[in-house]
Design goal:
The protein has 409 residues and is mostly helical. It contains 14 helices and 9 strands.
Length: 409
């Protein structure tokens, strides 16, 4: 562990000294952001390695006392984000210790590939193994992605053309609401696993299911103002829409911010994988809705719901901001009008997130990087706390910015 911390310190030193004659230059917010992320992650790894219960390797948030860290098993939808964060931090710093731990924690959740009870197998496997296969030359990683994709496809409802998100079990809250086949906008993020599986295997079934789901969601999930619903409940046989509702937003017709972020990111990714301009156009429209919203704060970090009743005292959601920033960096590389606008807007979001208003002090905040995210306010869970997926998309956004800056040199 000492080696990790020493390396992070050397990285910071290198970032503050120019190559021309050792002349010192000012440290940018980007340099500080990477350094802070490295320091907190070093401490997070130390905490994991000291955890005797090896079934709980994945830090997800803080406990109710807001000081100690909570962990999850591989079956939790968030279990792939910390391994994924380590792959990104390795790229950002060049520190091979992160590579070692990324591989260790990724392979520890390998059994997730066999799950069929959740659509979030895409989050779990693609963020961990999907990132890892870019560095680890192992056919086993490809096999994991294909197996996981096959199991995700068991949730596909051909009659409706969608992948069911949540199971409606007898006596569950979903059954009491009268739901039959709920699909959440979050599910767009899991489609990337299917696109990758087709590339690996050559089997177009995965690709076709992903496109079917994206098309149905494009048709049914969005309002006229380009904002999206959280939950659409379908008749699984006919595809008829039975309910348009929310589970994590303020109200059925409100704009839950992370849902808008999932839509922006998800349809940007679908454009990348298909070249279908409709997907990119939807991502742009939903982003325009968010950036022009009268309730968007000046620092561009949204409230947890853009229609929440007590704005401006409502909690912010750093996770939404990080997801949107990451998507905007990708959009800036596509054929869009004034592409630099999207890159600059993402820079502004990341600069805000990298400030003392959102970046935790070393050792605080459960050893997570970002403060001030919201899991589910209606369920009174994870309100104004760190979330591991906020950190993941923050690091992904930093990595995408790094790539763009290197390319533009």
């Amino acid at each position: 562990m000492k080696q990790i911390i020493i390396t992070a310190g050397l990285f910071l030193l290198a970032s503050t000294t120019s190559l021309a004659g050792g002349r010192k230059s000012s440290v940018t917010w980007f340099d500080k952001a990477v350094k802070s992320a490295a320091v907190q992650t070093d401490l997070q790894i130390k905490g994991i390695e000291a955890n005797k219960d090896t079934t709980f390797l994945n830090p997800v948030s803080t406990k109710k006392n807001r000081h100690s860290t909570s962990y999850c098993k591989y079956t939790d939808w968030r279990s792939g984000f910390f391994p994924g964060s380590l792959w990104y931090l390795y790229e950002l710093t060049g520190n091979k210790n992160y590579l070692k731990y990324a591989e260790k924690y990724t392979e520890a959740i390998g059994d997730a590939q066999y799950m069929t009870r959740t659509h979030d197998i895409g989050f779990i496997i693609n963020c961990s193994f999907g990132n890892g296969r870019r560095f680890i030359n192992k056919e086993a990683y490809d096999s994991v992605l294909v197996t996981a994709a096959k199991n995700l496809c068991t949730r596909f409802k051909p009659g409706a053309g969608i992948i069911q998100s949540w199971n409606v079990n007898p006596g569950s809250t979903y059954e009491r609401k009268g739901w039959i086949c709920p699909v959440i906008i979050d599910n767009m993020m899991n489609l990337e696993l299917l696109f990758e599986a087709t590339k690996i295997s050559g089997d177009s079934t995965f690709y076709n299911i992903a496109v079917s789901h994206a098309d149905k969601t494009l048709k049914e999930h969005f309002r006229h103002n380009a904002s999206c619903y959280h939950v659409i409940d379908y008749n699984p046989e006919t595809g008829e829409v039975l309910h348009r509702m929310t589970a994590q937003g303020y109200a059925d017709e409100s704009s839950w911010s992370r849902g808008q972020a999932w839509a922006i990111y998800g349809y940007t990714m679908c454009y990348r994988e298909t070249g279908d301009r409709r997907y990119l156009d939807q991502a742009l429209r939903t982003f325009d809705y968010m950036r022009n919203n009268v309730n968007l704060p000046s620092d561009k970090v949204p409230y947890w719901d853009m229609d929440a009743p007590d704005i401006p005292t409502e909690p912010r959601d750093a996770s939404s901001a990080a997801i949107i920033a990451s998507a905007l960096y990708e959009i800036s590389g596509y054929p869009v009008k004034n592409a630099s606008f999207y890159k600059n807007y993402a820079d502004e979001i990341l600069a805000s997130l990298s400030s003392d208003n959102y970046v935790a002090r070393p050792g605080e905040n459960g050893r997570f990087i970002l403060m001030h995210s919201v899991g589910s306010l209606p369920a009174n869970k994870e309100i104004d706390v760190p979330l591991n997926y906020a950190d993941y998309y923050y690091l992904e956004a930093l990595k995408r910015k790094q790539d763009i800056e290197k390319k533009n040199k």
